[in-house]
Structure formats: C-alpha cells, structure tokens
Amino acid sequence: QAQLVESGGGLVQAGGSLRLSCAASGRTFHIYAMGWFRQAPGKDREFVASISRSGGIKNYAGSVKGRSTIFRDNAKNTVYLEMNSLKPEDTAVYYCAADPDLGPHWRGLGEYLELWGQGTLVTVSS
To answer: Of 8, 62, 94, 95, which one has the fewest beta carbons inside 10 Å?
Structure first.
C-alpha cells in the first residue's frame, strides 16, 4: 500500500506563491486519483483540489480556483499543488490524499478516501 509524504509548506507573505509536493511510496501510484485538503485552525477539513489518475481531470474548490494548479508526475510518484496570490485565509495544514476513484467522496471532509499524508503547514502572513 502506498504512503504519502507532503512537503513544501512554510511561511509566505500574502500575494506570494508556494508549491506543495506529495510523494507516494509504492508502485501503485498511477492507479490512484490524488488530491489536497486543508484544515485551518478551528475549522473542519475541506477539499482543495483533486486530479485523476492520468491527470486529465482536475477539480478545484471555489476558494482556490484560478489561483491554484494541481498536477502530477506519475514517473516521480508525486502530485503537486501550486498556489499563487496567497491570502491569509489560505493558512492551514494541507493534506495529501489518494483514492482509486475520483468521485463525490472527494467532497466534504473526504473521510472515505483511502490514503492520507501527515500534512504540511502553510502560513500566509498579511
């Protein structure tokens, strides 16, 4: 079974950019749809973006659409989330997730998704 490890979080000023990475171990990366969630202090976890196995289908939450890009490199077993024009309200722990299917269970809290990473903290200062 694959394991997920996020990296790339940190402190950035409002208006800045950041690229998060999620590296998956194991040989089955290419059969998983991948995505990102985030959880801000005192709030529920929320969907950010997802990408299909081939990378041909991408979905974004309205709060990040137009400012973020999700993409994957199956040869490197890695999925990325590039975020631009960051806002203080983007401050959160960002979690990578994986599941064989890209369906409605990616919405909401994502509690039925198969794999989760440990998270990486993104802090956007005003």
So the answer is: 62
Provide φ and ψ at 114, rounded to 5°.
-75, -45
pLDDT of residue 56: 95
Instruction: Residue 64: count other Cβ atoms within 10 Å of its Cβ.
Output: 22
Place of tokens 């993104």: 122
Torsions phi, psi of 29, nearest 5?
-55, -40
pLDDT value of residue 69 = 98
User: DSSP characters for 56-67?
Assistant: --EEE-TTTTTT
Q: What is the dihedral sign for C-alpha 104, 87, 122, 68?
A: positive
Cα–Cα nearest to 69, from 121, 24, 19, 108:
19
Show the low-confidence residues of the chain (pLDDT under 70).
Answer: none
Structure tokens, 101: 């299917």
pLDDT score at 55: 94
120-to-9, 77, 91, 100 alpha-carbon distances in Å:
5, 18, 11, 23
